[in-house]
Amino acid sequence: MSIIPSFFGRRSNIFDPFSLDVWDPFDLGAPSGAGREASAFANAQVDWKETPQAHVFKADLPGLKREEVKVELEEGRVLKISGERSRETEEKGEKWHRIERSSGKFLRRFRLPENAKVEDVKASMENGVLTVTVPKVEEKKPDVRSIEISG
Q1: Contact (CB, 8 A) for 112 and 80
Q2: Among residues 66, 63, 48, 151, which one has the least CA distance to residue 108?
Q3: Tens-digit pLDDT profile for residues 31-69
Q4: Which of 106, 111, 112, 135 makes a 20 to 30 Å CA pair with 31?
Q5: How far is Cα 79 from Cα 108, in angstroms, rounded to an integer?
Q6: pTM for this structure?
Protein backbone atom coordinates (compact mmCIF):
# COMPACT_ATOMS: atom_id res chain seq x y z
CA MET A 1 0.00 0.00 0.00
CA SER A 2 1.36 3.39 -0.99
CA ILE A 3 1.62 6.21 1.52
CA ILE A 4 0.89 8.74 -1.24
CA PRO A 5 -2.62 8.29 -2.68
CA SER A 6 -3.09 8.17 -6.40
CA PHE A 7 -4.88 11.22 -7.81
CA PHE A 8 -6.20 9.04 -10.60
CA GLY A 9 -8.11 6.82 -8.21
CA ARG A 10 -7.81 3.25 -7.10
CA ARG A 11 -9.72 0.16 -8.04
CA SER A 12 -11.79 -1.60 -5.43
CA ASN A 13 -11.77 -4.65 -7.71
CA ILE A 14 -8.82 -5.00 -10.08
CA PHE A 15 -10.84 -7.26 -12.39
CA ASP A 16 -13.70 -4.74 -12.84
CA PRO A 17 -12.72 -1.95 -15.28
CA PHE A 18 -15.65 0.19 -14.04
CA SER A 19 -14.72 0.08 -10.36
CA LEU A 20 -12.39 3.08 -10.37
CA ASP A 21 -12.82 4.91 -7.06
CA VAL A 22 -11.89 8.58 -7.02
CA TRP A 23 -9.46 9.52 -4.28
CA ASP A 24 -11.10 11.44 -1.43
CA PRO A 25 -8.65 13.33 0.83
CA PHE A 26 -11.20 13.15 3.67
CA ASP A 27 -11.60 9.38 3.45
CA LEU A 28 -9.52 8.10 6.34
CA GLY A 29 -9.57 4.43 5.51
CA ALA A 30 -13.34 3.93 5.72
CA PRO A 31 -14.77 1.04 3.68
CA SER A 32 -15.52 1.83 0.03
CA GLY A 33 -18.51 4.13 -0.20
CA ALA A 34 -19.01 4.57 3.54
CA GLY A 35 -16.82 7.64 3.99
CA ARG A 36 -17.91 9.43 0.83
CA GLU A 37 -21.70 9.46 0.94
CA ALA A 38 -21.95 13.02 2.27
CA SER A 39 -19.53 14.52 -0.22
CA ALA A 40 -20.73 12.54 -3.23
CA PHE A 41 -24.07 14.35 -3.39
CA ALA A 42 -22.64 17.69 -2.27
CA ASN A 43 -22.58 19.23 -5.72
CA ALA A 44 -25.96 18.70 -7.32
CA GLN A 45 -25.63 19.60 -10.98
CA VAL A 46 -27.57 22.71 -12.00
CA ASP A 47 -28.10 24.29 -15.41
CA TRP A 48 -28.83 28.04 -15.58
CA LYS A 49 -30.13 29.57 -18.78
CA GLU A 50 -31.36 33.06 -19.48
CA THR A 51 -34.30 33.59 -21.82
CA PRO A 52 -35.75 36.94 -22.87
CA GLN A 53 -38.39 36.54 -20.13
CA ALA A 54 -36.65 34.76 -17.24
CA HIS A 55 -33.67 33.03 -15.66
CA VAL A 56 -34.36 29.27 -15.54
CA PHE A 57 -32.49 26.88 -13.23
CA LYS A 58 -32.77 23.10 -13.67
CA ALA A 59 -31.32 20.66 -11.15
CA ASP A 60 -31.19 16.90 -11.55
CA LEU A 61 -32.30 15.43 -8.22
CA PRO A 62 -33.27 11.83 -9.02
CA GLY A 63 -35.06 9.95 -6.28
CA LEU A 64 -35.86 13.03 -4.21
CA LYS A 65 -39.34 14.13 -3.28
CA ARG A 66 -40.51 17.72 -3.33
CA GLU A 67 -40.56 17.72 0.49
CA GLU A 68 -36.83 16.86 0.63
CA VAL A 69 -35.77 19.94 -1.36
CA LYS A 70 -35.73 23.60 -0.25
CA VAL A 71 -35.63 26.63 -2.52
CA GLU A 72 -34.95 29.91 -0.71
CA LEU A 73 -33.84 33.49 -1.34
CA GLU A 74 -31.10 34.79 0.92
CA GLU A 75 -30.10 38.43 1.27
CA GLY A 76 -32.69 39.34 -1.33
CA ARG A 77 -30.72 38.22 -4.40
CA VAL A 78 -29.10 34.86 -3.60
CA LEU A 79 -31.00 31.79 -4.78
CA LYS A 80 -30.33 28.82 -2.49
CA ILE A 81 -31.22 25.24 -3.47
CA SER A 82 -30.63 22.63 -0.78
CA GLY A 83 -31.81 19.25 0.41
CA GLU A 84 -30.83 15.84 1.62
CA ARG A 85 -31.05 12.29 0.36
CA SER A 86 -31.18 9.79 3.19
CA ARG A 87 -28.96 6.76 3.14
CA GLU A 88 -30.73 3.42 3.06
CA THR A 89 -30.17 1.36 6.16
CA GLU A 90 -29.18 -2.28 6.14
CA GLU A 91 -31.95 -4.44 7.53
CA LYS A 92 -31.33 -7.62 9.48
CA GLY A 93 -30.64 -10.48 7.11
CA GLU A 94 -29.60 -8.17 4.27
CA LYS A 95 -26.09 -7.69 2.94
CA TRP A 96 -25.00 -4.79 0.75
CA HIS A 97 -22.61 -5.77 -2.05
CA ARG A 98 -22.11 -2.27 -3.43
CA ILE A 99 -23.25 1.24 -2.54
CA GLU A 100 -22.89 3.59 -5.51
CA ARG A 101 -25.91 5.86 -5.24
CA SER A 102 -24.99 9.03 -3.44
CA SER A 103 -26.61 10.26 -0.27
CA GLY A 104 -26.18 13.19 2.04
CA LYS A 105 -26.81 16.90 1.94
CA PHE A 106 -26.37 19.25 -0.98
CA LEU A 107 -26.36 23.02 -1.25
CA ARG A 108 -26.01 25.36 -4.22
CA ARG A 109 -26.14 29.16 -4.22
CA PHE A 110 -26.51 31.55 -7.16
CA ARG A 111 -26.27 35.35 -7.02
CA LEU A 112 -29.10 36.65 -9.17
CA PRO A 113 -28.48 39.58 -11.51
CA GLU A 114 -30.10 42.99 -11.09
CA ASN A 115 -32.75 42.23 -13.72
CA ALA A 116 -34.21 39.34 -11.66
CA LYS A 117 -37.75 39.86 -10.37
CA VAL A 118 -37.13 38.10 -7.04
CA GLU A 119 -40.67 38.60 -5.71
CA ASP A 120 -42.09 36.30 -8.44
CA VAL A 121 -39.82 33.23 -8.18
CA LYS A 122 -41.57 29.93 -8.91
CA ALA A 123 -40.35 26.34 -8.47
CA SER A 124 -41.68 23.00 -9.64
CA MET A 125 -40.43 19.42 -9.53
CA GLU A 126 -41.22 16.70 -12.04
CA ASN A 127 -39.55 13.33 -12.62
CA GLY A 128 -36.59 14.22 -10.37
CA VAL A 129 -35.88 17.54 -12.10
CA LEU A 130 -36.28 20.73 -10.10
CA THR A 131 -37.08 23.80 -12.22
CA VAL A 132 -36.80 27.26 -10.68
CA THR A 133 -38.01 30.16 -12.79
CA VAL A 134 -37.00 33.71 -11.91
CA PRO A 135 -38.81 36.24 -14.14
CA LYS A 136 -36.88 39.23 -15.43
CA VAL A 137 -37.84 42.84 -14.80
CA GLU A 138 -39.16 44.39 -17.98
CA GLU A 139 -36.67 46.76 -19.45
CA LYS A 140 -38.04 50.26 -19.75
CA LYS A 141 -37.80 51.40 -23.29
CA PRO A 142 -36.55 54.93 -23.65
CA ASP A 143 -39.33 57.42 -24.18
CA VAL A 144 -38.68 58.75 -27.66
CA ARG A 145 -40.62 61.57 -29.21
CA SER A 146 -40.07 63.28 -32.49
CA ILE A 147 -39.21 66.95 -32.53
CA GLU A 148 -40.33 68.95 -35.52
CA ILE A 149 -37.57 70.82 -37.21
CA SER A 150 -38.55 74.31 -38.22
CA GLY A 151 -36.90 76.35 -40.82
Answers
A1: no
A2: 48
A3: 444 444 434 455 678 999 999 999 999 999 988 899 999
A4: 106
A5: 8
A6: 0.63
